[in-house]
Amino acid sequence: INDYNSMCAEFLGSELKNDGQFDYWTYDHLDFHPLKICGSSWVSGNFEFHSDWNWIHEVVEAIEKLYDDFHGHFVVYISSNSCTIQGTKLNTTSENFHPAYFSEYYGSDKKEAVVQAINQFLIWYNNKH
Questions:
Q1: N or C: more exposed end of the chain, with fewer CB within 10 A?
Q2: Contact between residue 29 and residue 13 where contact means Cβ atoms under 8 Å apart
Q3: pLDDT exceeds cutoff 90 at 14
Q4: pTM here?
Q5: Rounded distance between C-alpha atoms, residue 23 and residue 59, angstroms
């Protein structure tokens, strides 16, 4: 959970910093309310990207803002117990053809499916970039 939450924070532009004694994550540029947060930083245990729909939705929106020439925009499809993250552009002439689906997950409930699909997508995205 901590690794997933850290990956989401980095994806949204937060930075892990150290003040000489403590590690903390910046958050000034995000739209979250400073619940459980002091000053302009998070302690890593306060992340809720795995459990709070508002936090999860921030990551979904950031994924849907991505674009590259090869994959196009990315779309997140959420249903009752599944989530699919898909590129909107297929490049069938490339030797390195990438499928349209980058992450597809079926879970015991909607939230689990979305979190797992985001996790799989961010692992792929971080390896690609």
A1: C
A2: yes
A3: no
A4: 0.79
A5: 22
